């Protein structure tokens, strides 16, 4: 998979290393995967996940699972984990090549929601992938959390929040971030 974001950018997973990779060899759908470690210990660092950056093509060994049981659960692979799924024999990530970032796949809001009703079954094929939505208008902002909703011209609406620590207003905001 090609690395979409280097570790420690997405901080909603707290004290872990977390990246997304996208398979760019088999087509455009069902190609995203969340890769993470259970913690930031020396064992987790031995996977070499901290050496990764966007654009790198990697091969990784780990334990896969579906996180959560709700319709918007996330497919993940653990490179190292002390809890379920236990994977305490980390294998170093192989960097196969370096290159440019994946180009985003342009999608529409109705790929994820119709009206104000989320449709996870429609969006599942884009899970963990780099996508772009165009021609939307932000229609509400929660100033306590940074969560916001946006709407397209057909009235289809989505709610988003920032998973990084740069823009969020939640507890995992990076101290000293100048972004708002």
Plain-language structure description:
The chain has 180 residues and is mainly β. It contains 2 helices and 14 strands. The strands form 5 sheets. It has a 5-stranded mixed beta sheet with strand order 1-2-3-6-5, with no helix packed on it. A 3-stranded antiparallel beta sheet has the order 12-13-14, with no helix packed on it. The two termini are 31 Å apart. The mean pLDDT is 86.
SS summary, helix count: 2
For the largest beta-sheet, the strand count, sense and barrel status come to: 5 strands, mixed
Low-confidence stretches: none
Please tell me how large the radius of gyration is.
17 Å
The secondary-structure element order is: EEEHEEEEEEEHEEEE
What proportion of the residues is helical, as a percent range?
A: under 10%
The percent range for strand residues is 25-35%
Ends distance: 31 Å
Averaging pLDDT over every residue, what do you get? 86
Largest beta sheet: strand ordering: 1-2-3-6-5
Q: What class would the helix/strand composition place it in?
A: mainly beta
The coarse silhouette is globular
What is the number of beta strands?
14
């Amino acid at each position: 998979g090609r690395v979409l974001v280097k570790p420690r950018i997405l901080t909603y997973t707290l004290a872990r290393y977390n990246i997304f990779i996208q398979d760019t060899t088999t087509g455009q759908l069902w190609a995203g995967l969340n890769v993470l470690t259970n913690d930031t210990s020396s064992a987790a660092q031995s996977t070499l996940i901290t050496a990764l950056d966007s654009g790198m093509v990697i091969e990784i060994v780990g334990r896969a699972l579906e996180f959560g049981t709700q319709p918007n659960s996330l497919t993940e692979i653990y490179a190292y984990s002390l809890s379920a799924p236990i994977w305490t024999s980390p294998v170093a990530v192989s960097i196969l090549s370096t290159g440019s970032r994946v180009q985003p796949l342009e999608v529409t809001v109705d790929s994820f929601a119709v009206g104000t009703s989320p449709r996870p079954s429609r969006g599942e094929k884009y899970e963990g992938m780099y996508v772009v939505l165009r021609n939307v208008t932000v229609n509400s902002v929660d100033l306590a959390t940074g969560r916001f909703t946006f709407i397209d011209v057909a009235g289809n609406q989505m709610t988003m929040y920032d998973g990084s620590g740069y823009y969020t207003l939640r507890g995992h905001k990076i101290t000293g971030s100048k972004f708002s």
